[in-house]
Amino acid sequence: MAVTQTSTSETPAVDPRKPLAVSDSALATVLEVRAQEDDPGATALKVAITGSDMTEFQYALELLLIADAADDDLVYTQGPHDELTVVVPADSAMRMTGATLDVPAASTPGGLVIRNPNTPNPLDGLNLDLEGELPEQIQQVLDRAINPALASHGGYASLVGVDGTKAIVTMGGGCQGCAASAMTLRDGITRMLMEALPQLSEVIDATDHTAGENPFYT
Q1: Domains of the chain: which residue ranges?
Q2: CA-to-CA distance for 112 and 21, rounded, in angstroms?
Q3: pLDDT tens-digit readout, 24-72
Q4: Contact criterion met (CB below 8 Å) for 74 and 19
Q5: Per CATH, the architecture of 134-205 is what?
Q6: CATH architecture assigned to 3-116
Q7: How far apart are CA 40 and CA 149, in angstroms?
Q8: Is residue 184 scored above 70 in pLDDT?
Q9: Cβ–Cβ < 8 Å for 54, 111
Q10: 4 pLDDT band (50/70/90 cuts)?
């Protein structure tokens, strides 16, 4: 079941026991797919966060028997008549609270989207005991927090140099020429570097977005 994430600025009141809401349109889509299962009424939709690409979470959607849900999973119903049982793993629930499973806008081809007000932070849970001068500290953040997140897309970020309190960064691999790479650097890498290193005043994108294999910016 194809799904993408769309960010939203809306923050409606939500029940933390039901972190992911399901729109009427998405409900109809899921129920149509679920109807092909051997026992639709005993089948739930499981939605889990599996990783991130710096700016958005990545998700896995699957149908499973309600009886197979883990003991610590959040299990609840959605729909005007509680037609759909939703399962969200405990380790995904907080990062998904306030999100909605929906269908794309009319101009976007099929599948489902998750509109999530939460965004990933690769610095969470990391004890960054940074050492050395500013260039060495920047490199440590890139190596230990940022590049592991980019690696799942075959990309990486490199430090070109430091000009005073400005870091000059370039993106390579699968990130070079990617349509989302500029946004990733602006909304992801820049935010992470400046959060970890408050002395930074700016992160400059030195990527040649017209280069690389199948570049987007031509």
Answers
A1: 3-116, 134-205
A2: 13
A3: 999 999 999 999 999 999 999 999 999 877 678 889 999 999 999 999 9
A4: yes
A5: 2-Layer Sandwich (3.30)
A6: Sandwich (2.60)
A7: 36
A8: no
A9: no
A10: low
Query: How many C-alpha atoms does 78 have within 13 Å on its Cβ side?
Result: 28
Query: Cα separation of 167 and 170, whole Å?
Result: 10
What would the two tokens of residue 108 be? 């976007």
E-state strands within the chain:
3-7, 20-22, 43-52, 57-65, 74-78, 84-88, 99-102, 112-116, 155-163, 166-173, 202-205
Q: What is the pTM of this model?
A: 0.67
- Which residues have a Cβ under 8 Å from the Cβ of 203 and sit 6 or more positions away? 166, 167, 169, 185, 189, 190, 193, 194
Contact in structure between 92 and 69 (CB atoms under 8 Å): no
Dihedral angle sign, alpha carbons of residues 74, 116, 46, 84? positive
Residue 115: exposure state from Cβ atoms within 10 A (0-12, 13-18, ≥19): middle
